[in-house]
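Supplementary Note 3. Input sequence used for the single-chain structure prediction.
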Amino acid sequence: MKKLFMVVEGETEERFCRRILAPHFGSFGIKVYAQQWITNERLGAAGGGNSFDPIERHIRRILKAADIRQEDDVWVTTMMDLYGFPRRGKSVYTHEVAQLSSGRQKIELLEMKMSERIGDERFIPYVQLHEFETLILCEPLALLSYFTEKEEAIYRLRREIKGIPPEDINETPDGAPSKRIMQKIPRFRKQKATAGLVVTREIGLGKMRRKCPHFDRWLQKLEGLENAKSI
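The predicted structure, written as discrete structure tokens, is reproduced below.
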């Protein structure tokens, strides 16, 4: 069975990868390992942060370990947000990226730069447009599966984003997907790791893939590993 390490931003993404993506990829003969990147080598703190350096180190550590063990069919991908993308350290978020007006253009360039930086065909970069909560906005009413008492607020949220493709909901401090949800449901901030899993499971991968083309293309690439061979 092939091994796929998903280097992710936080607990919400880690749970999503382990509970929703891992069973899906298991049917393709791919074993998923979701890991938050290590931000502090001495203390072992994980996830988030403003520097790209620990992300790069974490990716290289996995690939090096596979080489030492002489393991075939080990692959690495990322799941990290465009919104708040780490810009400190030797970040791939350069002025060239920052000056682009389109989020889609930004993630295409970021993924290309990440691929070039790592320089290993076993690495498949992915940057989420614009953040994990984009997937929740594929069907806002699914929030009712967790926040049962927030029906009126959730319907307002649904009306607010009607007609906007989820991946086009912007990355501004007030308009980012997570900010929109928290404006309507303040306690989402502290409960998003649990709520995110419940709600995305309610929505289902099929709908998320139909409404989020970039997310769908990422999954297609990973599904293709079933018949791929690393060198």
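The first strand starts at residue 2 and ends at 8. Residues 2-129+212-227 form a domain with the Rossmann fold fold (CATH 3.40.50).
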